[in-house]
Every structure is written in C-alpha cells, then in structure tokens.
Amino acid sequence: MGLTIHYGLRSATRSIGEARRLIDSLRQRALDLPFQEVGPLLDLSGDECDHEKQCDPERWLLTQARQQVQRDGYYYNVLPKRVIAFTTHPGDGCEPANFGLAIYPATIEVGGSKLRTKLSGWSWSSFCKTQYASNPDCGGVPNFLRCHLSVVRLLDHAREIGVLGEVSDEGVYWEKRDVKSLVEEVGEWNAVIAGFVGEMKDLLGGGSEAQAEITKFPNFEHLEFESRGGMGS
Asked: Of 5, 27, 107, 183, which has the most beta carbons under 10 Å away?
C-alpha cells in the first residue's frame, strides 16, 4: 500500500544485441539522473533467470521479471528465458526501480500438459513505490520529488527510444506534469494510510502486527490525527 508508479516496456526487435543496446541506453540515461544508485547491466539466461536461485538485489529484479498466465481460474508463473535489465535505487525510503526487457517461453508445463503463454517479443512489467521517500527522516518532500521525478524522467527516455509501453502513475504526475499537485497527492496518501494503519492498531490493541512503513514517519501521529479529522471523527 502506497503511492506507486507502474510501467511496462516492450520492443519488437528480434535481436539480442539490439535489446541490450536499448536497455544500456536507458541505463546510461539513469546515470545522468539524480538516482542514489544505478546497478550494473545484467544479461541473464536459463536458470540465472529463476528468482528463487538468486540473492538480492537480483532476486527482486527477477521476481518482477516474472509474468503470469491464467488457466481455469488459476494463475501460473512464467519465468523468463533471458533478461537484460538493471536496478536503480532512487533514494532513501523509496523502493528500487527495475528496468529491462525479457523474453519468455511459448509454453509452460501445467499438470502434465502444455499451456501456451501467448507471450512474444521482448517485454517488461514493473513498479516502484515512491511514497515513503517522503518520510521526513529520509529527506521529506524534496527527497520524494527527486525519487519520483527521476523515475518519470527515465520513462520519458524510454519513450524517446521507442520502448515505452504503458505507465500508470498513482501520483498523476505522468499525466499532469504538475509538481504542486504531486506534492499535494503524496500528502493526502500519507494522511489516508496513517489513518487506516491507526485504525488497525486500535483494533489490534496497538501490537506489532499493526506496524507499517508509515509508522516510521516521525509525524505519524499528526498524519493520523489529520486523517481522522478529515473524516469527521
């Protein structure tokens, strides 16, 4: 739970070299942006693409690289055959943002039979939760803006080089390009989530079961009060 940017990448190229060139172009652009850290370009294949056989940070990147297919109401994971990708760390409090392209098998084994994945070409689907970069202990709103806008600017570059698929920005900055509106949006998210977590803490008697990222904010109680006041309680 938290304000997140969801995004997809895709390319119709059949060339591994071209896919690598495209993702390397993204990575070079990331190095020019104010990300806290940009990881190396990874080119993985076969068992190397299995997230369960990797350690962090590759594990999270490969977890996001999975796709899912549905059959008879059940969802089945599809591991990529090849992954060309890199990880960025936008800043303190923010989730890593992974960018890449992957190719997937045409079929997977399900209950002794073959299930067509209907996945073709190079693609990528990922997300990055930026909200908790607004924690005052992490740098507050300026840190949040640096993180959120860095991800957006990298997606702008993905569009420029022709690999951008879809973008869904819960902060609505992707559509509006309005920093003031984005600041207001993250403030509302913080208050609403603080109020929700506060209610859960009350129901659970304030135990550790109710701990959440928003409770790490030094102004959590103020946010919780603001949310409950806004609801007329």
From this structure: 5
